[in-house]
Amino acid sequence: MLARINVANFREWVRPGETATIIANISSSQPQYATALCRIEVGERRVASADLLFSFVPSARFGPDYRDEVLEGFLDRSRLASPCTKPAADPTEA
Q: How many C-beta neighbours within 10 Å does residue 54 have?
């Protein structure tokens, strides 16, 4: 779960029809949290950047029928892209 936006900079607008690429690199990872340095690029232009803090929250803390459709879609695409790899353990269930 996104816990904090440490720093965020927006440099330019992304115009309709432009393709924005989101790039995130994990800079620190601990059992309870992780930080990521992120940026958004349009072509060769960096249009935004952010330093984010994520907290790992046990899924039991959410409602019993809670589903994160974005995360599930990402995981499904990841599994299709690399069917020979074993999915990583869910850090929220540790």
A: 16
